[in-house]
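Researcher: Re-running this chain for the archive, since the previous output was lost when a drive failed. Same request as before.
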Amino acid sequence: MKSTHNFQQQLEGISEKILRLGGLVEEAIGKSVRALVDRDSALAGEVVAGDAEIDRLELEIDDLCVEVLARNQPLARDLRFLCTTMKITPDLERIGDHAVNISERAIELNNEPPLRTLVDMPLMASRAQQMVRGALDAFVRHDSDAARAVIQMDDELDQRMEQTFRVLLSHMIENPTTISRALRLTFVAKYFERIGDQATNICEQIVYMNDATVIKHRPDSRQRGEASSR
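Model: Regenerated structure tokens:
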């Protein structure tokens, strides 16, 4: 017969690894932004090199979840926790990949003269980081309301991306010599927008984990709690 205490320790261990993964991802985003703004190719290189640890930890968490599922056959909330974990770790890993992409674009941009403006890029970066941090906090606190609040932030990030695209397009039209640099910055803006999408995916899974309510592809239910049986 399985030990309830040991089972709970395993779940806590998985939670700690999720937070470790989230911390590495947050750090990668922060470094990639500084590398872009400060034109620091060495820092960008650190982000690229650090991605291997993020990948390794994602696989480790996935293996642990499979092992716990096989050995304990959990039910209800514990089962939802493990299923949620297996779904959000790929999103966290993808966020790490986006930080690598931003760093790679930063290295490329550093080989050219600086563009006059980075438009809303630092603000987009701040919002994307805020969403990732908010998603991790909601996961730790098992807080569906906090998860829904993070989801609502995604619209602003989308709007800023569109505004950034318009500004950079104007740069390219007015001065064709900026085209390669402006295009790279449009990629960076898209990466930040995708980070917001990944944070949204995580928060949708958190609501499912806590409330047994599926809100994916259901925009109305993202904004309000729904009564559901647990």
